[in-house]
Amino acid sequence: MHMLFDCFFFLRSATGLFAITFLTACAGPGLHTPAATEWMPRPLSSVGAVILKAPVLSFTDTGLSVSDGVTHNGLWAVDSPGIDWEFSLDQGATWTRGIGSSFEVTGDGAKMIWVRARDDAGNKSEIVRVNCVLDTTPPAALGVAGQTEGVTHSLKLSGIEPGARWEYSLDEQRSWSTGQCSALGILGNSLSRIWLRQLDLAGNASGVQAFDLKDQNQAHEASSNPLQPSILTPGLQTYLIHGVLVRGDADYVRWDIAKGHKVQSVKLVQYETQDGIAFYALQRNTVFDAGMDVSRMLVHGGMGPSDLGRNVLANTPRSQLGEGAMTLRIQQTGPLPTQYAIEVIMAPAD
């Protein structure tokens, strides 16, 4: 949130005492950076007039950015110890006496807020000026169209507001993950349904939609043959691979990274079993023929509840994340069935 503060210096001239005012921009309370200067000589009412200390304003900048001034929370805190204060929402045409240490702005739209300290003797501080945009209106629900391409079921999303993001939930809306671009590719046979919504710039959430993933036309059990992995349909940026593992039944899934793109992250986003950990590995190849030779694997290791949300490619050299094929192997070495979901995110190369 950028704030404009009205500050001043005094200069004495042959005709009397003047205050020279300039504007500074503030990225938040106490964080001032220079801005365009506006010089306005103003005669004071009398030499020695009391200038009160200006209040300090703060608010909660909600939404996808905490510094853009777009918020769904209209409550402003005023720090003016021991001094009364007042605020104006019409550029000083009218003023409202402040009560306590906060006031609330209502009504969606751009706001220009002026605040100053004052006392009963008519002394005032310089005016603190801030701007924000209040948005309390939730966006419309996403439009979703499903189609099956090969063994991948794709959900094509529409109606995403400019600057908004879309999210999905696999646990009945208890937690949400952020998707990329405007489609979700899904391959697997364990998830029963998925929830979708969008968040606008101010952080307002749309209505949610649930989609059944148990339809036979959508479910696909990942290949157990390392030389014939299931292949994700190319051209999307967000994928979900899901399935059920038991001892001796590994899943093999391949994706192809297009020219000018990279795989940004591979994360475990669901893991349900009494067996604490499964084994995963990634190989840069159209098949998984590394066997147990870890020197031929890009990354490998255990994957369990403590790994939820961890990008297993976080420490991989960028040169290994670009154009070409990548094959995933995941298996459970324990005897109990394990339900898992892995998110794969593609992105344009840097």
Describe this structure in words.
This protein has no helices and 29 strands. 0% of the residues lie in helices and 49% in strands. Strands 1, 2, 3, 4, 7, 9, 10, 12 and 14 form a nine-stranded mixed sheet that branches. The chain has a six-stranded mixed sheet with strand order 15-16-19-23-29-25, with no helix packed on it. It has a five-stranded mixed sheet with strand order 22-24-28-26-27, with no helix packed on it. The relative contact order is 0.12. It has 350 residues and is an all-beta fold. A hairpin with a 2-residue loop joins β15 (143-149) and β16 (152-158). The radius of gyration is 29 Å and the shape is elongated. The protein folds into two domains: 3-134, Immunoglobulin-like; 143-348, Jelly Rolls (Sandwich).
Task: Give me the secondary-structure topology.
Elements (H helix, E strand, L loop, with lengths): L2 E11 L2 E13 L2 E4 L5 E4 L7 E2 L3 E4 L10 E2 L3 E5 L4 E5 L7 E2 L4 E3 L4 E10 L5 E2 L2 E7 L8 E7 L2 E7 L6 E5 L7 E2 L4 E6 L4 E7 L9 E4 L17 E2 L6 E8 L5 E7 L3 E12 L5 E6 L15 E5 L20 E8 L6 E11 L2
Parallel strand pairs: 5-13, 7-14, 19-23, 22-24
Antiparallel strand pairs: 1-2, 1-14, 2-3, 2-4, 6-8, 8-11, 9-10, 9-12, 12-14, 15-16, 16-19, 17-18, 17-20, 20-21, 23-29, 24-28, 25-29, 26-27, 26-28
Structural class: mainly beta
The CATH architecture name of the largest domain reads Sandwich
Topology as a string of helices (H) and strands (E): EEEEEEEEEEEEEEEEEEEEEEEEEEEEE
Give the end-to-end Cα distance, rounded to a whole number of Å.
28 Å
Shape type: elongated
- Assign the CATH topology of the largest domain: Jelly Rolls
The residue fraction in helices comes out at under 10%
In total, how many domains does the architecture comprise? 2
Largest sheet: 9 strands, mixed
Mean pLDDT: 87
Instruction: Please write the CATH class name of the largest domain.
Output: Mainly Beta
Based on DSSP secondary structure assignment, what is the total number of beta strands?
29
User: Which stretches are low in confidence, meaning pLDDT under 50 for 5 or more residues running?
Assistant: 1-48
- Beta-strand percent range: over 45%
Q: Radius of gyration, Cα only, in angstroms?
A: 29 Å
Please tally the helical runs, counting DSSP H or I stretches of 4 or more residues.
0
